[in-house]
Amino acid sequence: MTQKSLVPGATLHDNEQGGPTLTLKHDAFQAEISLDGGQLTAYQAHGQPPLLYLSPLAYRVQGKAIRGGVPVCWPWFGPHPHDAALPQHGVARTARWTLSDVSRTDDGFSVELLGPDFHGLKVESCLQLCAAHVDITLTTHNHGTTARSYSAALHTYLAIGNADSARVQGLAHGRYQDKVHRQSGVLYEDTLPCRGELDLIVYGRTGVTLVDEVWQRQIVVENAGSDSLVLWNPGEDKARTLKDLPPDGWRDFFCIEAANAEDDARQIEAGESHTLGTRLMAIPL
Ligand SMILES: O=P(O)(O)OC[C@H]1O[C@H](O)[C@H](O)[C@@H](O)[C@@H]1O
């Protein structure tokens, strides 16, 4: 593919490994979207640290998930519920998506992407990017003839100064499922340190804040169409088993995922659709 200008500031081109990539340049920020995975891989407001972490060892070949940015887990989150042969986190993050529209808005860009079809379910994504925030929606349509269940997540890798000294706020009274310790219960504390391996689904919380003392900022995450959010960091030991993450890479991000996961999996009637969304806002401390 040769480089193609779409609207002022938006260019579609192949990255170094040949993957179709949309680069967005604005006076106040710049961003990159990979059509492989249909995912935002970078967003940075000028003069600020990056909002999203992208592993320097991330695979950038068609058919492999990209570790970083905002991977799309769809139409199931985690292992497939009945068929262990199917890939973890569904088919969308390894599919090549289609760019259906890109336009300038008053304060940034709006991008629409069409994702894969999976047995009567179809997914599309809309990204609204401006200097103040990033909004991503994921809409699933059931174009089959019977009701269908699915699960999903926008698996956001938020960039941070150091996971060891960051914390998530806004969790009090959320019901949780802890996949590391195989426990469930209710979170009594409002704040959770991002230290060590964490893999938690928290129900009933649509908004939380990641507080980063090192970079002196907080990232506010507000989700919609979701009653579950996932908090994940592999920690030092598990990170060593991930080939697409440097040994110290776990320090540089914390995942806060807008989800329809586990107990929050959704059923969509024939002809209906459901939208999951997340808004990310970085604010100085
Ligand atoms: O390594 P991946 O397939 O990208 O999955 C990374 C992580 O995603 C989610 O956060 C899950 O809750 C974790 O259990 C999983 O380890």
Automatic annotation (TrEMBL):
Record bears the keyword Isomerase: yes
UniProt-listed Enzyme Commission number(s): 5.1.3.15
Pfam family, one: Aldose_epim
Example GO molecular function: glucose-6-phosphate 1-epimerase activity
Superkingdom as given in the UniProt entry: Bacteria
Catalytic activity: alpha-D-glucose 6-phosphate = beta-D-glucose 6-phosphate
Stored CDD domains: D-hex-6-P-epi_like (cd09020)
Entry keyword Membrane: no
The protein's enzyme class: isomerase
SUPFAM superfamilies referenced in this protein's UniProt entry, alphabetically: Galactose mutarotase-like
Binding residues annotated for substrate, in chain numbering: R67, Q88, R93
Keywords of this entry: Isomerase
Any one GO BP annotation for this protein: carbohydrate metabolic process
Transmembrane segments: none
Annotated catalytic residues: H155, E257
Entry similarity comment: Belongs to the glucose-6-phosphate 1-epimerase family.
PANTHER family: APOSPORY-ASSOCIATED PROTEIN C-RELATED, GLUCOSE-6-PHOSPHATE 1-EPIMERASE
Name of this protein: Putative glucose-6-phosphate 1-epimerase
Species of the source: Paludibacterium purpuratum
